[in-house]
Amino acid sequence: MGYRFCPHCGDALVIRPGSSITRPYCPRCSKVFYRNPTVGVAVIIVESDELLLVRRLGSHEGQWCIPCGHLEWDEEVREAAQRELKEETGLLARLGPVFAVHSNFHDPEHQTVGVWFLGKRLDGHLKAGTDASEVRFFPLGRLPEPMAFPTDRLVCDKLERCLRSGVYDLLLGSRFTEEWSTPPGRACLPG
Ligand SMILES: [Zn+2]
Known about the structure:
Elements: E1 14-15, E2 24-26, E3 31-32, E4 38-47, E5 50-56, E6 64-65, E7 68-70, H1 77-89, E8 91-104, E9 112-124, E10 132-139, H2 150-165, H3 167-175, H4 178-181
Parallel strand pairs: 4-9
Antiparallel strand pairs: 1-2, 2-3, 4-5, 4-7, 5-6, 5-10, 8-9
The structure holds zinc ion.
């Protein structure tokens, strides 16, 4: 649900005529309210050709997904991916390259753009965290049901193809350098 009233002055928002995209507008503040997807991050951990999945608590409870979560405001995207993995599975990981990026429309009211990173376990003990009831490795040809997100299925299909063809090892081998594990940080921000 979008805004119906201006969060600054409380006046009712209107739709300005003449635009092909309708966006709420506050005539008093002269402000347009844009609605954009948020960013989701996920980490792919494969060991012995098996993929790490978590069984969710809360939203989509009981369904399985690749460990994931939402980017917080003021948080670097790779740090967010590592944080979510740690919170859900107990594992610390080094991150590799981006494996996939998809728009998520499965929940029309909460649309996101998902970024799936390749990851490699550095440390930690596998243990379901606060957002998960179970955490386990599965062979890609025998994923558990139900899976929570359609785009995770796309990622798993691509992953299976990459593992079968040897591309996965190439991605992992050539790209897992210090360069990839170090977040670029805030070099572009002032200060
Ligand atoms: Zn206003």
